[in-house]
Amino acid sequence: MSIAVPAPTRLGAFARLAKLDVWDYYLAVPLAWALCGPPAWGSTDVLVTLGLFLLGTVGVVAGAVAFDDVTGFRDGSDAANYGPDAPARRLARKPLLTGELTEREAIVFGWCATLFGTLVWTWTAAFAPFRPLWVLLLLAACLISAVQYSWGLKISYRGWQEVFLAGFGIGLVLAAVGLCTGEMSAFTLVQAILFGLGPLLFGVYSNTRDAVGDARVGRPTVAVLLSTRGNIAFIAALSVGEIALIVLSSGLGAAPWWFAPAMLPAMGLRVAQLHRGLGLGDVLGARLIGLHAHRTTVALLIVVNLFTPALGGWS
């Protein structure tokens, strides 16, 4: 199905295929920098390592979303979820659907982007101050799962979409920190999980909106597999779980005692998202709040990491 919309440039079409305007996973890099601590903040090796890591991540993500668009175009799920009545700005995010790019062009772009990301991540690991085995394995897992998300094994079509959305973000933060410090503290793990929950907690609202189209092509997201009530309970449990992680990590000593109060704005946005999506039934509005909640969470985590040394650590 092809729906004509104005196309500014072919370069712009490839940028939209790569979803370069959705940069939420890329925030793992500044968060990782903040997590490295004062000795590493001004280190040239650390800054170059993180710069290369970011460049490679852009390539890996661009390849993954390009393949996702090809699969969605082939099976008709994108045509169902981005129909002719969709606003032109939203529809333009699918250049295969609008006819701006051919399927072959998208596949070639996907493989080129993936190859670029793989080579740059390999270069990053070779240059990094540390390269423990667990980091290399984590990088390999992130790369393989991203490529196979909607291509090859199609893990998102086998019930693993939600696991990937969170796990990929967690893996990015831990791998970036590991390459720079060789370590993973409990507080680093807490922040990596909070980071990974961000994409998941706006992805589940998108899946709720797209449940009919996903069910039609056999993509078993939680929204497809569960009843409406069950899906609501799942989303609520994720939201409450995120807040509980923040509070308990402070109370049990995995984070500074003042961590939970510092994260109150992010927790407030998560409650507002629940109210908008589950209370008022505005799924797309809740998804937008989820984007703001994720970005606010990352900004607050960076501030927390920057201020922790000045406040005497966790005392």
From TrEMBL:
GO terms for biological process: menaquinone biosynthetic process; vitamin K biosynthetic process. It is found in: Membrane. One of its GO terms (molecular function) is prenyltransferase activity. It holds the Pfam family UbiA. The keyword Phosphoprotein does not apply. It is a multi-pass membrane protein. The keyword Transmembrane applies. Gene3D superfamilies: UbiA prenyltransferase. This is Uncharacterized protein.
